[in-house]
């Protein structure tokens, strides 16, 4: 089977690459599964009643997603409802938020916050960045049924410290008791290498090692959070980017290492005109979805990999062929302002760029080698065929 990797669906975050991986379906139409069915990878049709009865006996169920796909979140919601009918002791683990957001999740489920207050208290737009409307139906389901929500991620800052300083360099109390991850399986490491090759510094061996280390932190943190959720016998259901789950490589592998082997991965699988059954080993089961109709044009993207900096936002990489490359941005630049707005966190720039109309200029104030300069980022018109992100 031919595989390809989607462009990052999280602007400015190289780590977002893995979370947004998608596998294309290419083969003869006569073997094409119909939408709305549960399949075992390899193509065998599954009975949904028997499948859910089996899943209800597990400790952990993992529901994959491509973060910006509403149909994936609708599928997750329906699956959660089915599991909740069999296991009322359900706990929903969210990749979307770091552990610092737990008080906001508890207050939301308790009915103490409205939507706007929750988004502010959880720091959703900075911590995650994807439109909360994609997730609000699931959040309301949890609130309506008093299903606990658990933040299972860590902040990018902590992830960077653990990947850079090593696990012994960060006190256990500052890493929420999360233990060091198991080594990446060889096939997972190969897959991560393919992902990292899309980065402008894709031939940097040291950079690849940092990327793999950061990815393992991410996987281990989420696995540890789900294990915590099962402590009192609850069924923990994790909502996680599909790239962390495919082929049992990421979070499932870390769950095994933590001694929780009773887990199952479920993934959505889009049916297109030319397709084939999902490959063996991809997941425990997949649910077939109709091909998504053409979506509205995505927001503009600058094409930079950025991290926080005390003076603004530091550019760590430039995508080839991007608006940033055309504008002359360079690695190491510190972006101080965009259109006169002071930038203090990566999300500030992401949100400003996403509001940028096609075919317009965005002035950036940049510090380079101690000197300040203005750089004009020119965003292409939609009809140019340039979908720069």
TrEMBL record:
Origin species, per record, is: Billgrantia ethanolica
User: From which residue to which does the signal peptide run?
Assistant: 1-29
UniProt keyword terms in alphabetical order: Signal
Mark the transmembrane ranges: none
Q: Which domain of life is it from?
A: Bacteria
The identity of this protein, by name, is: PDZ domain-containing protein
Annotated PDZ domain ranges read 286-343
Q: Name one Pfam family in it.
A: Cofac_haem_bdg
Query: Is Zinc-finger tagged as a keyword?
Result: no
């Amino acid at each position: 089977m031919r595989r390809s990797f989607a462009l990052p669906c999280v602007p400015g975050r190289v780590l977002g690459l893995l979370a947004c991986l998608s596998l294309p379906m290419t083969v003869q139409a006569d073997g094409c599964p119909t939408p709305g069915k549960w399949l075992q990878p390899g193509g065998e049709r599954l009975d949904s009643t028997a499948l859910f009865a089996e899943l209800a006996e597990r400790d952990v169920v993992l529901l994959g997603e491509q973060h910006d796909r509403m149909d994936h979140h609708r599928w997750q919601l329906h699956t959660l409802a089915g599991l909740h009918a069999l296991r009322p002791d359900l706990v929903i683990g969210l990749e979307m938020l770091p552990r610092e957001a737990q008080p906001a999740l508890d207050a939301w489920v308790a009915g103490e916050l409205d939507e706007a207050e929750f988004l502010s208290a959880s720091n959703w737009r900075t911590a995650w960045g994807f439109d909360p409307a994609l997730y609000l139906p699931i959040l309301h389901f949890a609130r309506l049924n008093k299903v606990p929500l658990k933040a299972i991620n860590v902040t990018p800052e902590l992830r960077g410290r653990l990947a850079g300083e090593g696990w012994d360099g960060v006190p256990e109390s500052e890493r929420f008791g999360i233990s060091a991850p198991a080594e990446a399986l060889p096939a997972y490491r190969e897959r991560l290498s393919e992902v990292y090759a899309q980065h402008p510094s894709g031939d940097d061996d040291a950079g690849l090692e940092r990327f793999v280390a950061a990815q393992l932190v991410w996987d281990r943190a989420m696995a540890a959070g789900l294990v915590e959720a099962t402590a009192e016998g609850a069924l923990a259901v994790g909502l996680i980017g599909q790239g962390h789950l495919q082929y049992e490589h990421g979070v499932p592998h870390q769950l095994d290492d933590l001694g929780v082997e009773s887990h199952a991965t479920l993934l959505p699988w889009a049916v297109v005109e030319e397709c084939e059954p999902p490959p063996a080993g991809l997941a425990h089961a997949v649910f077939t979805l109709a091909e998504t109709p053409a979506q509205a044009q995505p927001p503009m993207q600058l094409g930079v990999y950025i991290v926080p900096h005390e003076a603004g936002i530091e550019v760590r990489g430039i995508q080839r062929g991007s608006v940033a490359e055309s504008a002359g941005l360079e690695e190491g630049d510190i972006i101080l302002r965009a259109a006169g707005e002071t930038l203090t966190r990566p999300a500030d720039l992401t949100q400003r760029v996403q509001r940028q109309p096609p075919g317009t200029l965005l002035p950036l104030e940049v510090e380079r080698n101690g000197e300040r300069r203005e750089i004009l980022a020119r965003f292409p018109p939609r009809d140019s065929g340039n979908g720069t992100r």
